[in-house]
Specification:
This protein is an alpha/beta fold. The protein has two domains: 138 residues, D-Maltodextrin-Binding Protein, domain 2 (3-Layer(aba) Sandwich), CATH 3.40.190; 108 residues, D-Maltodextrin-Binding Protein, domain 2, CATH 3.40.190. The protein is built from nine helices and 13 strands. The strands form three sheets. It has a six-stranded mixed beta sheet. The chain has a five-stranded mixed beta sheet with strand order 9-6-10-5-11. Strand 1, helix 2 and strand 2 form a beta-alpha-beta unit. It is found in: Membrane. It comes from Kosakonia oryziphila. It holds the Pfam family Lipoprotein_9.
Amino acid sequence: MKHAAFTLAGVALSLSLVWTSAQAEALRVAADPVPHAEILNYIKKIDPKLDLKVVELTNGANANELLANGDVDANYFQHVPYLKDQEKALGKTFAVAATVHIEPLGIYSHKYKDFKSLPNNAKVAVPNNATNLSRALFLLQAQGLIKLDSKFTDPATTLATPKDIVQNPKHLQILEIESPQIPRSLDDVDLAVINGNYALEAGLSPAKDALGLESAKHNPYANILVTNPQLANDPRIKELAKDLTSPQVAEFIRKQYNGSVIPVAPQS
């Protein structure tokens, strides 16, 4: 009995040491450079006891594949509709740890100052991934440039494609391009629908430069902190989630991005 008791005590101590060791390891979080990595680097300053290792996404790296393979512990770059699409594609289930901010999708042009000036057969660059393509089409519809089939009512649950356009009075040519490349296409197209983070990286101010901008109200595309289910209760994940949704970080987002990134957390 004594031997069994010592054995159980040894196992408990071993598990405790493993858990303590895991807590001491740096939390690896994959993030887009702007604004996600910037926000995480701000958290490193205000919460130094949380050992964060920010892995900036470059060269088209898939942060959900990195997470699924265990190369990172969490990622912060995407919204829920995109995550759901990725879960289907990868055959994986992830866990949402925090809902942080909204980056309104915007329509930009280097050639025109308003939609009235837009000529017939204008070229419009849109994201080529399913969720953001649909999101772009809903935004073009909101600006009166196209009309989608009436069955497309909820942008978060019904994914539209160019085939679902039923009215296109200016005969817009919809060009599907990889999201990070769209800002570079601005001189080659008439309009470009650009995700907020890529607009910021390109030196655009969505709140000032966009000809049309998504409404933040009831927006289903809030950016989230995502992890694997087995890490959902990890104290480091919980600490980061608490920081990301804190009034202090919300205030940083408001001041840093002037309406181009909008915190979901309440004002302090």
